[in-house]
Write a structure and sequence with these properties.
The protein is of the alpha+beta class and 471 residues long. A hairpin with a 4-residue loop joins strand 5 and strand 6. The model is unreliable at 466-471 (pLDDT under 50). It has helices spanning 2-12, 21-28, 47-59, 114-121, 138-144, 151-154, 232-243, 255-264, 299-313, 324-332, 334-339, 356-370, 399-417, 432-438, 441-456; strands spanning 17-18, 38-42, 64-67, 85-89, 97-100, 105-109, 126-127, 161-168, 175-179, 203-211, 213-214, 218-226, 247-254, 280-288, 316-320, 344-345, 348-350, 374-376, 379-381, 386-388, 391-393, 458-459, 462-463. Helix 7 packs antiparallel against helix 9 (299-313).
Amino acid sequence: MTPHLDALRGIVGAQGLITDSGARQSYEMPQRHGAGKAAAVLRPASTGEVSQVLAYCTRHRLRVIPQGGNTGLVGASTPDASGTELVLSLSRLNKVIEVDAANRTVSVDAGVRLSALNAALEPHGLWFPIDLGSDPAIGGMIATNTGGARFIRYGDVRRNLCGIEVVLADKQGTVLKLGSGLRKDNTGLDLKQLFVASNGALGVITRAELEVHRRPQQTAGALLVPRDDDAILELLTALETGAGEYLSAFEGMSQGVLEHVLRHFPRLTNPFGRNPIPDYSVLVELSRSWVSREGEQTLEDVLARCIEPLLASGLLRDAYIGREKNLWDLRHSLSEGLRSTGQVVGFDLAVRRADIPRFRSHMKALLAAQFPDFQICDFGHIGDGGLHFNLLAQAPADAARVAALRNFVIEELVQKFGGSFSGEHGLGRANQDWYDRYKPAQQRRLAGAIQRLFATGELGAIHFGDQDKKP
């Protein structure tokens, strides 16, 4: 590897190459599962350097793992244990943020963190409303198509993507610019969408143009306690009807996860006071993008008018209307608090919205009978069918037990509910086996053919970089 590292150092410079084992650790350590070992970490500072790196590595058949903010949970952004893979970190591509307030778009380097982007947008009264518990890089958000807690109002990254600059892993390191600030462009295939949720398999995104939104100026929130699981979707439908486009979040949280988080973080406000924590709660948010107008009904009044008939009908057992910041502090602490409690077996699932209560009830019964040593501590984005189905081990469980549990849950999900084993975390080593097992072979072959197309840069007589040839 030494001659290759010397050559790569010539491309990215001394600051762009990390070989020291101690300095590599933060790039080798994933958020979950086992850490890997990299041959080196490459940190290019421009699209041109990314292009040269990928061209060199492709010509010499060196394996490259693209990495954004390294906040993923499926082992897609970290190397394996072989010590032969190169991590390509985009952490130095973090300087460009160009805001077009009139067009309501922003051009941003792929290594820019979500928090930095929103800080730059705030003076313009704008934000990128993909709400997450972590602080990922924009390129990684595109590569995994993140959704988050406000998907019901704003959608996922795909819905807010206007254009990308991407470097292909071919022998030329081809740079493509796909899309622009236009919201309407039907002059051909929307090729940029191929790279959304591609997990870096087709190329490395180095820059993006995103649609951004008016920052909310009014908000109201409440924690609702449904009568039972069957009432959850009726509540969602009632709020979508009563609050309309003001509804910006509908987030479910189970008793198990709330108990552990409130116990672990005593600084958090317990919204239930001295009352028992209910079996399931739903955080609801309404928002508007303008300041309050004279004579206008407040969002608190809108929310109260929606809640009153639900309480009267019995669909709601209770409703806790408090400081919205406290509710979101609680919601954003769930993952960290649960991980700090013990051994967690986490799943990033998606089903049809109407199937969430049925899936939860189904799994409660099955797990109580077959895996009683695990407690359900789930939460999720009910408005879009996303479910973070976390199971907490009552006592340390060995690898075989955990593997059996994982396979059991996914088989039930896919076979009986037609669900997805990766709702928003993408694909990586942690869920590769399920992709091989449950993704239809025809779709896997087609995805592989598209990947080979971008790697070779040619399909029939079409060649990237050769503008004169016609198909």
